[in-house]
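User: Can you model how magnesium ion sits in this protein?
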Amino acid sequence: MTGIEYADFVDDGYEPRDTDLVCQFVLDPGEGMSMVDAAGRVASESSNGTWAALNVPDRVTELSATAFDIGDGEVTVAYPGDLFEAGNMPQILSCIAGNIMGMKAVDSIRLVDCEWPEELATSFPGPQYGSDVKTEILDAEGRPATATVPKPKVGLSTEQHAQVGYDAWVGGVDLLKDDENLTNQSFNRFEDRVKQSFEMRDRAEDETGDRKDYLVNITADTETMLDRLELVAEQGGGFVMVDVITCGWSAVQTVREHAADHGLAIHAHRAMHAAFDRLDHHGVSMRVLAQVARLTGVDHIHTGTAGLGKLENEDTPGINEWLSGDLYGLSDVLPVASGGLHPGTVAPLLDALGQDIIVQVGGGIHGHPDGTEAGARALQQAIDAYQDGVDAATYAEDHPELATALEKWGTGSPR
Ligand SMILES: O=C(O)[C@@](O)(COP(=O)(O)O)[C@H](O)[C@H](O)COP(=O)(O)O
Ligand SMILES: [Mg+2]
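Assistant: Here's the modeled complex, given as structure tokens:
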């Protein structure tokens, strides 16, 4: 038997083992609490300790986390691999982002980054396709894939939604996308919407000769999501969309399994992420959320617009780099830039993030003075101009749709 208490979870010179999950935190110790004392509490409460000193069987201490590299407001914690259930993301998050977020011992604490050991990382499936969707499901090789959400976000009838999809597809967009809050409301029922939209998709494919697809929002309780996923597969769809934060990672893991049965790619919308990651001193960073998304197996995830859109983002280039980097053979994830984009923002966006992304433009297409098809053409023209190395204003001289968009929105970012 061994006695354990908070101080036993600190070893400032600790060298992590290859099997450790290593997490970086920033924290502000509570009143009268030193960094070292706070760090011990973080490591203890997020692994297997508690406030009272305990006498425990020796092997229990092998599961205890260790706080080290304790600096000014920063601490790193190494978690033994055996603390975790392989392949169970909710269990892992209940450790590293669980009770510690509410401890009195800290005024604030933020999980900033994780280094995932091979054994734990490969206990997850990772994405099926990642950036390969651009060639395996779409015809978007060598350029950014494009997507559009019909606007208004909700309220269109099923017929109107499908028609907007058709106009955007023939205007050049690759993907129609449901908004994060459009599911199966009375004015636009899921089943009808899916069927009618794929009919329009087939027409647009015949007319353009390009493969087109639809990011269908299946967000609901898990059982219902699986039924909706089946319907998308039956209708010849290639993608499902899930609000991964509001649905939760256990639902994502279940959807990943069933999506693979049908070869469906998963588009992750991150609605509610800012409740976790907006404050730079508390919560869970978008970087960690993106890591969790890759491991659990989504193919796309929204990561921001490098500050060019209407929403606050953190470190989009850094997160995108992690999503496309090596991870023990797991597939990459295709980042989605979305939120307040329009044709005038395309050049600086691609300069900042490269072309291996999805560019989602909603209001920047459907708010075009000449309508959806013209808005879609303007987006495509902005991308063509960028690829030809021509600035948008010059290219617009003989591309009226782009000219109209630049006249209306210029090249600035909406607020
Ligand atoms: O509802 C919206 O605002 C959007 O459909 C964008 O519409 P617009 O193109 O009309 O702006 C997306 O949900 C956000 O981009 C999500 O944010 P993020 O990508 O940061 O997760
Ligand atoms: Mg939206």
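A couple of observations from the model: The domain at 130-409 is CATH 3.20.20.110 (TIM Barrel). Residues 126 and 297 are 4 Å apart (CA to CA).
User: Helpful, thanks.
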